[in-house]
Amino acid sequence: QVQLVESGGGLVQAGGSLRLSCAASGRTFTIYAMGWFRQAPGEEREFVAAIRWSGSSTNYADSVKGRFTISKDNAKNTVYLQMNSLKPEDTAVYYCAATSSVLSRWLEASTTRINYDYWGQGTQVTVSS
Q1: pLDDT at 26
Q2: What is the 8-class DSSP label of residue 29?
Q3: What is the mean pLDDT of the chain?
Q4: What is the phi/psi pair of residue 89, to 5°?
Q5: What pLDDT, on the 0 to 100 scale, is given for residue 128?
Q6: What span, in angstroms and rounded, lies between the C-alpha atoms of 45 and 64?
Q7: DSSP state for residue 77 in the 8-state scheme
């Protein structure tokens, strides 16, 4: 089992920045990739970004490309999501996720919720206009 704990959410004005963190514990050696998803009220949970645990392959949703950056610190078993130029439409609960499955079709598979085995409890991000 892998446990995930997110932190760093909050309230920010449009154009501002936030950095989310996700600390993994437990059987972290089984992790193949980690991702961030978000869910706004009344909406489906959607993919934001993902990163392979070994190496540096990343993937981003079109809506956040150029504004958000996913990174990791393997020594700390932590993944980060740096969010810049935030917009009101970025308001959502942000969830960290991890998978032990090998995602061979990386660009497609890393965006799919069902491919992730472990989820954090979520952290609220609110962007005011």
Answers
A1: 97
A2: G
A3: 96
A4: -70, -5
A5: 97
A6: 15
A7: T
Amino acid identity for residue 36 in this structure: W
Helices (H) and strands (E) in the chain, counts: 1, 11
Question: Dmax over Cα atoms in the chain, in whole Å?
Answer: 41
Cα separation, 76 vs 68, whole angstroms: 21
Distance between CA atoms of residues 11 and 61, nearest Å: 22
Distance CA 73, CA 80 (A): 8
What lies within 8 Å, CB to CB, of 113 at 6+ separation is 37, 45, 47, 97
| Paired tokens of 112 | 């799919």
Task: Encode burial over 32-48: b for 16+ CB neighbours within 10 A, e otherwise.
Answer: bbbbbbbeeeeeebebb
Rounded (to 5) percent helix, strand, coil in the chain? 10, 50, 40
Task: Kindly state the average pLDDT of the residues 68-82.
Answer: 97
| pLDDT per residue as tens digits for the range 84-113 | 999 999 999 999 999 999 988 999 999 999
Beta-bridged to residue 95, according to DSSP, are 37
State pLDDT tens for residues 105-124.
Answer: 999 999 999 999 999 999 99
Residue 123 and residue 20 in contact, taking contact as beta carbons nearer than 8 Å: yes
